[in-house]
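Subject: two folds for Thursday's group meeting

Dear M.,

Sorry for the delay on this. The cluster queue was jammed most of the week, so I only got both jobs back this morning. I'm pasting them in the order they finished. Each block is the input sequence followed by the predicted structure tokens. Could you check whether the formatting survives your parser before we put anything on slides? The first protein is the one we discussed after the seminar.
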Amino acid sequence: MKYRAFGKTGLKVSALGFGAMRLPVLPANPRKPKAAKVVDKDEAVAIIRRAIDQGVNYVDTAYGYHGGESERIVGLALQDGYRAKTFVATKFPCWKWKRDGDFGRILNTQLKRLQTDSIDFYLLHALGADTWKNVVLAHGLIEKMVEARNAGKIRHIGFSFHDSLDVFKTIVDYTDVWEFCQIQLNYLDTEFQAGLAGLRHASARGLAVIAMEPLQGGSRASLPPTAARVFKDTARTPVEWGFDFLWNMPEVSMLLSGMGSRQMVDEDVAYASRARVGMLRPADVAVIAQARQTMQGADTIPCTACEYCLPCPHGVAIPYNFRAYNNLLKGKAKAECEAQYANWVPMFGHRADACVGCRACEPKCPQHIAIADRMKDVAAAFA
């Protein structure tokens, strides 16, 4: 495992972090196909520990991941001596703020779930213009973070982000309290949300920067045929290309990978063993640029399958509809995509034509997708 300096904290973190948002789940009950997915606890613990055993020293979770089960499972995984080997990160859900006292109540719940006295890295989750103004500033959450740090309940203060570059710069520049931040970044999203400009701005301010969604929710691992041909004759897999794009930059302190199987852990750790700043040659940069160019023409929906939009009040399986539609746009066989839409999507909820346009999901979407409008596109494509 390779390690990198983590901003101004003086700490060294593994180039690869474990993201606990996509833990393995048990097979669906055929009698209850639309029931909430249940995490395979034993396998999830084994996977997290397998990563730590191979040098990963940063595990990222959040209050709402897997309905709260992610924090509990991370807490289990870090027993038996693993806590001492690992930095643990979790996030305060700003959208859960209702009244004074919520910050302390939620933080104490997280400490209990994680079975720890102190959280190494605590983030304000998914900041944007609205939550920044109406929650963080309006209710003094930065001051509450500092109080929690002074009390020893957390050690380092940061935030994750989903909004425009201008909003990102405003948040970064507001206070010197920030020690790190987490942004969505991959070779296709270089100008999306904070983007490369935000990465460099935060790094110049001394913040450690964590790159999340390095494969855009896994979509960069399964490429359209034109992009797949670009990578076909190279020694790297599409996943490795996505990771190396980030590790190549000195401003990237770490990338988070949502590893959901032992095989993924072993593969990602192998890629991380080769990680270094400046690892891409000019010819490699040209390959990535060519792959990016082939993908920018398709009007795919930038859904990362985070499932923040769920549950839909009308039972629409939002990310699953988008996946079938994106596969169609990427050039996969039409019959295969139609079968996915007709047979696979209903295992998780209703198809796109059941959307009534209530837009209850849209404020929850980190990608700011006009979900109701795009559902019309999906329904029309498969009509």
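Second protein, same layout:
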Amino acid sequence: IVGTTYSWTVVQSNVTGATNGSGSVINQTLSSIGVLSGTATYTIKPTFNGCDGAVVVVTININPIPVLTATPTVTSICSGQSASIALSSSIAVGTIYNWTVVQSGVTGASNGSGSSINQALTASGTSNGTATYTIKPTYNGCDGTVVVVTITVSPIPVLTATPTATTICSGQSASIALSSSIVAGTTYNWTVVQSGVTGASNGSG
């Protein structure tokens, strides 16, 4: 009937944002309280020329938004080690975790889902690479805010010692040149076992 007006009352449980009102549409932002689902139950009455029609009851179910915590054991690993990231949520039961990953100078990372990320990552060059995980929590179809975790992967240096064996006269110096597949930033440490010799010592350089 043209000219009908509408008014409503609402009862909310574990929800905020619902209010009594009137008009031709109900458009209210509803938020759950804490980590429990809630309801907003609207009782809507139509009126025309002072005559009330039968009320209609509409119940809205409001699910909470999960808050993700991603806890990496470390954010820098050596090539071949595993990136271990534990995933938890403000909603302990029922939250689903999905992630995508972008890898640069790294292999072994892949998109996936589950309660933890544990992937063996390998540096593909002679400089540091990264695997950047974008993790999204979902509860009852409601997506929480994504969390981004970046793992830095350092390559493993391959040592060349020249010479690997040689013979010198007593009192002369043993000269061994050290180089690496990773030109910049490699450090060298050594230990030595001497038999029938003096003058050798552990060191670095």
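Two things I noticed about the second structure. The CA atoms of residues 120 and 155 lie 13 Å apart. The mean pLDDT is 95.

Cheers,
T.
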